[in-house]
Amino acid sequence: MSVVTTPAVLLRSFNYSETSRVLRLYTLDLGLVGVMAKGIRKGGGQGRNGLETFSQGDLTLYVRPTRDLQTFKEFSLRESGRGLGRDVLRFAAASVLAELVLVHAGSEPSPLVFQRLTTGLSRIGQAERDEVLAVLMNEGWMLVAALGYQPQLDPCVECGNALLDSDLGRFDFAAGGVRCPNCAVDIAGPLIGPGARAQLGALIEGPTDLPITKPKAHLQLLHDFTVYHVSESKALQSFRFLASVARLDVDTEAEGPAEGLASAGTEKSGQEES
Ligand SMILES: [Zn+2]
Question: How does strand 21-27 pair with strand 31-37?
Answer without folding.
Answer: antiparallel
